[in-house]
Amino acid sequence: MYSFRSIRRSLFGNLAGTIFLALFGAIYEVYSHGVYSYFMIYAFAVPLIMGVLPYMIMHTLGKTANPIFINLWNSAIATLSVGSVFAGVLAIYGTTNRLLIVYPIAGAVLILGSVISLVCNHSHIGLAGQSNSNLS
Q1: CA dist 62 to 22, 57, 58, Å?
Q2: How many domains does the chain have?
Q3: What is the residue range of 50's domain?
Q4: Which whole-number Å values give the CA distances from 64 to 57, 67, 68, 122, 128, in the listed order?
Q5: For residue 48, what is the DSSP state?
Q6: What percent of the chain shows pLDDT beyond 70?
Q7: DSSP 8
Q8: Structure pTM?
Q9: How far apart, in whole angstroms, are the C-alpha atoms of residue 59 and residue 126?
Q10: For 84-120, b where at least 16 C-beta lie within 10 A, e where not — what string?
Q11: What is the CA radius of gyration of the chain?
């Protein structure tokens, strides 16, 4: 069984990231000379929706996850958040970059890896539990 401490730490880390990105976006928009970017305005939504809400539900229900899932999931959140801020900065500046596509692709790969680690861990636990009950 994995510790609730990692869930709680991820919850508060994503909450801090959400608050930071909301403040960063608001301050950046003030000094953007009237040019706005939805990527910058809503960058806080990535850690809020993908981080705070799932971890809050897991913490409330008393659920845990394996460390590989947590690390990959948090890395996906960070990748998508940085990509959103970077896209917002470039949009406000009035330019674009070919490398912007890297962030959603890397985020999707990290999400896929985290889901695979979660499924493999649950199937492994299920098989171990099933084989132990058959031995009795």
Answers
A1: 29, 8, 6
A2: 1
A3: 4-135
A4: 10, 9, 12, 11, 18
A5: I
A6: 88
A7: H
A8: 0.84
A9: 22
A10: bbbbbebbbeeeeeeeeeebeebbeebbebbeebbee
A11: 19
